[in-house]
Amino acid sequence: MKHVSILALRDATMSCIDSSYQIFNRVNTFLNYQGRPSFYKVEIVGISDVETLDSGLYRINVTNTIDKIAKTDMVVIPLLCGDFSQAMEKNKGYADWMLKQHQQGAEIVSLCVGSFFLAFTGLLDNRRCAIHWAAKNDFTLMFPRVQAIDDTIITDENGVYTCGGGYSYLNLLLYIIEKHLGRELSVLASKMFEIDIERKSQQPFIIFVGQKRHGDADVLKAQEYIENHSGDQLSVDHLCKTLHLGRRNFERRFKKGTGNSVMEYLQRVRVEFAKKQLESSRKTIQEIIYDVGYNDINAFRKVFKKHTNISPLEYRRKYT
């Protein structure tokens, strides 16, 4: 039997704690129906007997406290809400215990922005971490030694698991179940809880917001110019001439500040503009493509699919 410790972190969301508890216990029920023994022993654990969640909205009676658990097999870190810096400070009492459990071989499962606390412990240093696209900029600034990824839902780094997206933790739980008990049981859980097991990417959901907290005034001017002229025939030379900057130095500074090359940034701004048009306007797809500065329809379709993982037509059907 695998012992699972779901942390009742202060300022965590109640929904993901309860969902994790229910899903792992229901898997035991599925196994029992098949005449097999339960696989998970699930506990909600805290520092004290009663913990406050979701910025004081809930109080929960935990099933155990960390001082009484010498060894666990899996630690589940729930989503955090509110100010991440404050949440990490409130929960630092869990850090040493969690590090000890990891050293003893425990798997660490971080649900969405619970990864802020996981990164705070140092366990994500030099590892990949799936982070919600809206939190990536803040996460990267706080934890530069972590490779933040916003285009995939799940990362698996030798027993340290992360996921990006508020409810994508359900897909991570299915992934964990599959690793422990096989594909058949994971598919059964997917069907019983009606979770789309094939959801792998955050890309269709991303709203591109450029990183602007880099402190480089020239780069910020370039970003604003691109965003205000996304339908123009822009080039790097045109930007440099307009802003009176040397190309080589400008490109280096732009990449350092935003995480994108100039042309990548322009592509993402154009794709974001096209997405809004596809959602709300009556224009044809061809008209929208011309509006964002492309004359080659097929070239833009390739760029659009690169950043959203679906075609413009599929996007319109999904979000119109």
TrEMBL record:
Swiss-Prot/TrEMBL keywords: DNA-binding, Transcription, Transcription regulation
The UniProt record lists the keyword DNA-binding: yes
One GO MF term: DNA-binding transcription factor activity
Organism superkingdom: Bacteria
Keyword Membrane: no
Gene3D superfamilies noted in UniProt: 3.40.50.880, Homeodomain-like
SMART domains: HTH_ARAC (SM00342)
Ranges for domain HTH araC/xylS-type: 220-318
PANTHER family: ARAC-FAMILY TRANSCRIPTIONAL REGULATOR (PTHR43280), HTH-TYPE TRANSCRIPTIONAL ACTIVATOR RHAS (PTHR43280:SF28)
Name of the molecule in the record: AraC family transcriptional regulator
Organism: Puia dinghuensis
